[in-house]
Design brief:
Order of helices and strands: HHEHEEEEH
Largest sheet: 5 strands, antiparallel
Low-confidence stretches: 4-18
Distance between the termini: 33 Å
Shape: globular
Number of helices: 4
Mean pLDDT: 89
Oligomer: single chain
Structural class: alpha+beta
Number of strands: 5
Helix content: 25-40%
Strand order of the largest sheet: 1-2-3-4-5
Radius of gyration: 15 Å
Number of domains: 1
């Protein structure tokens, strides 16, 4: 219930506060593309499999995936995660290539003080990472950010979640 309220709060915020909308950001990252939203209702087995793969607490039964296409060919998938870092929400967009690798990680909303947000260059560490060949853990594949440890850990953990969702819903369906 708490997560549903948080999502509704963020949706309300996007509607009136001028925050970045995922569709607009995706069209900026991937010019001359169209963006479709596909909603998935997860089975209990899919939820458990996503948990096991990502090793992240996950209990949502509804997931929205953004499908980015250029001339009817999929160029990327997007997943937006809303979570609390310390006491305030963070909204992060993860884009995944058709072969299951992270492409872009971008913060759409950050409720904490900006000094807790890693510098933009840090996000480049995620490019090309996948669940198959990478550990995707802070201090292992991804450097820790002094002063932003909780944020860097959350962004990294939810990157694993985004990849696990992609793997269960899209990657295994190929």
């Amino acid at each position: 219930m708490k997560k549903v309220f948080l999502i509704l709060l963020i949706v309300f915020f996007f509607s009136f506060a001028g925050s970045k909308k995922p569709e607009d950001v995706l069209k900026t990252i991937y010019p001359n593309t169209t963006v479709e939203v596909k909603n998935y209702v997860l089975t209990p087995e899919q939820v458990e499999k996503i948990r096991q793969i990502s090793k992240v607490k996950f209990d949502s039964k509804l997931v929205s995936i953004y499908v980015v296409k250029k001339q009817d060919k999929v160029v990327a998938y997007g997943y937006v995660d809303v979570h609390v870092v310390r006491t305030k929400p963070e909204v992060v967009l993860y884009t995944i290539t058709p072969d299951g690798k992270l492409d872009v990680v971008q913060v759409l909303h950050f409720g904490e003080p900006l000094e807790y947000l890693p510098e933009e260059g840090w996000f480049n560490n995620f490019k090309g990472k996948s669940l198959d060949k990478d550990n995707l853990r802070v201090k292992s594949d991804i450097p820790n950010v002094s002063g932003a440890t909780l944020t860097s850990r959350a962004i990294t953990d939810y990157a694993r979640l985004a990849l696990a969702i992609w793997k269960v819903l899209i990657g295994e369906q190929r």
